[in-house]
């Protein structure tokens, strides 16, 4: 019994040391990843980490986004989107040419391309509005097919800094802001395949405390 107790004690102590070592290793790796992201102008967010991984290993990026999006936005997971590039003003999403993304002609479905375009806008604006309580809603979409889409594509959205500042001012002054985006969809040979024009409405979400303290009419 005494020997068994010693062995159990040694096992518990060994397990404790292993856990401490793993925790310390994770902290070191996380710090290195944050530093790497910072050097690339990114933050420690899942989309940013995916953008970094996309340069290093597209397969690793796919695995990461597949895992993350499965728990976040089902539309992104279903479409197989992965973030290839992401800054405060620009996003590029890779949309794979998969069986369930195709229409009856064997081409990329218009609904899938529209979904990828609007999701790109949401990810980019949510990044800029992270300190604001707001919601995004699509008001209008114009879709122009230039060439049939039958391969993986890159969906690109950009926010001009002046556009962003105007939207933030309107959001704070009027509780809403309207923005318009020209979205480009290109293949990996940089051929322009689809152009979309998206009108977005950004609305401020009243804080619970502010709502409760608002004067009664």
Describe this structure in words.
This protein has 217 residues and is α+β, with helices and mostly antiparallel strands. The chain contains 7 helices and 6 strands; from the N terminus they run ααααββαββαββα. The protein has helices spanning 2-39, 46-56, 58-71, 74-79, 110-128, 161-174, 208-213, and strands spanning 82-86, 90-95, 134-145, 153-158, 176-186, 192-204. A 6-stranded antiparallel β-sheet has the order 1-2-4-5-6-3. A hairpin with a 5-residue loop joins β5 and β6. α2 (46-56) runs antiparallel to α3 (58-71). It is globular and about 65 Å long. The N and C termini lie far apart (77 Å).
Brief descriptors of the model:
217 residues, alpha+beta, 6-stranded antiparallel sheet, 50% helix, 24% strand, globular, disordered C terminus
Low-confidence stretches: 63-73, 209-217
Query: Number of helix segments?
Result: 7
Strand sequence of the main sheet, in spatial order? 1-2-4-5-6-3
* Average of pLDDT: 75
Number of strands: 6
Percentage of residues assigned to helices? 40-55%
Multimerization state: single chain
3D shape: globular
**N-to-C span:** 77 Å
Order of helices and strands: HHHHEEHEEHEEH
Give the C-alpha Rg.
Answer: 23 Å
Major β-sheet annotation: 6 strands, antiparallel
Strand content: 15-25%
Structural class: alpha+beta
């Amino acid at each position: 019994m005494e020997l068994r107790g010693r062995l159990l004690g040694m096992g518990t102590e060994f397990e404790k040391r292993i856990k401490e070592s793993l925790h310390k290793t994770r902290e070191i790796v996380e710090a290195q990843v944050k530093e790497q992201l910072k050097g690339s102008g990114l933050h420690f967010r899942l989309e940013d980490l995916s953008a970094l991984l996309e340069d290093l290993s597209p397969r690793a990026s796919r695995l990461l986004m597949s895992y993350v999006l499965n728990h976040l936005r089902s539309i992104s997971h279903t479409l197989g989107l992965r973030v290839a590039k992401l800054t405060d003003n620009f996003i590029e999403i890779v949309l794979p040419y998969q069986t369930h993304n195709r229409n009856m002609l064997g081409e990329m479905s218009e609904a899938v391309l529209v979904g990828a375009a609007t999701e790109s806008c949401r990810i980019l604006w949510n990044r800029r509005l992270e300190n604001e309580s707001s919601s995004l809603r699509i008001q209008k979409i114009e879709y122009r097919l230039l060439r049939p889409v039958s391969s993986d594509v890159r969906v690109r959205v950009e926010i001009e800094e002046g556009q962003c500042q105007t939207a933030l001012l309107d959001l704070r002054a009027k509780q809403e802001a309207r923005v318009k985006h020209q979205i480009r969809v290109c293949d990996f040979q940089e051929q322009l395949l689809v152009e979309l024009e998206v009108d977005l409405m950004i609305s401020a979400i009243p804080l619970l405390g502010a709502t409760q303290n608002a004067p009664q009419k």
